[in-house]
Amino acid sequence: MKTTDGHVASKVAEHLRDDEIHVWRLAYSHQQGRAPLRALLGAYLDHAAESLQLIDSEYGRPELAAPHAGRLGFNWSHSGDQALIAVARDLVPGIDLEQLRDRPRALEIARRYFSPEESAALESLDLEARSAAFLELWTAKEAVLKALGRGLAFGLHRLNIVMQPDRLHLQWLDHDDAAQWQLQRLHLDAEHVGALAWRGPPRQIRHWTLAAAD
């Protein structure tokens, strides 16, 4: 595996530092299943992808089974023909990706599942801006809940996120200290939105894109 700028993925993986999170973007199809995720994790662990076993946690987050359990923190998300994978040491990141599309029921869904403050923020926007903002809020919430290890079953209303021009801000998280969390908007392209979250101090985010397989 190589990056679009010619780096070998295993060499990139060798240089993952304890104060970094590596975020990978790649082309993806549902027929691949978890094969791309296992292949990239294999590059970090210096093991063949076929030797890695992935299991689901109680709430569905993929984890490495023994004997590799706990050696890496990772998460992934896919939407349309794209996927994102986050890899780190000594923390479990949460990442989410959505393909931008019209969401005519965005306000209805927000009023039912989001916090009142988030719903009010969406209501103040015109229809086109509202769809994009709704998906940005959705990805940010999903990223936090994935990092938390709970997923959507935890409840989208149990965290409040403020969208600011320069950043996303986790203002409140039920039964946790939101100040201990990091939440970052991922700048991808005009067709996708993404977010990355983790509990812990700030880390440097390094972005890589995998080249399509020959």
UniProtKB/TrEMBL annotation:
Domain (4'-phosphopantetheinyl transferase): residue spans on this chain = 94-196
Q: Does the keyword Transport apply?
A: no
GO terms in the biological process aspect are: lysine biosynthetic process via aminoadipic acid
One Pfam family, short name please?
ACPS
Give GO terms: molecular function aspect only.
holo-[acyl-carrier-protein] synthase activity; magnesium ion binding
Name the residues that span the membrane: none
UniProt entry keywords in alphabetical sequence: Transferase
Where is the signal peptide, in residue numbers?
Answer: none
Q: Which domain of life is it from?
A: Bacteria
Q: Which GO terms describe its cellular component?
A: cytosol
- Report the InterPro entries cross-referenced here: 4-PPantetheinyl_Trfase_dom, 4-PPantetheinyl_Trfase_dom_sf, P-Pant_transferase_sf
To which protein family does this belong? Belongs to the P-Pant transferase superfamily. Gsp/Sfp/HetI/AcpT family.
Would you tell me the protein name for this molecule? 4-phosphopantetheinyl transferase
Originating species: Dyella tabacisoli
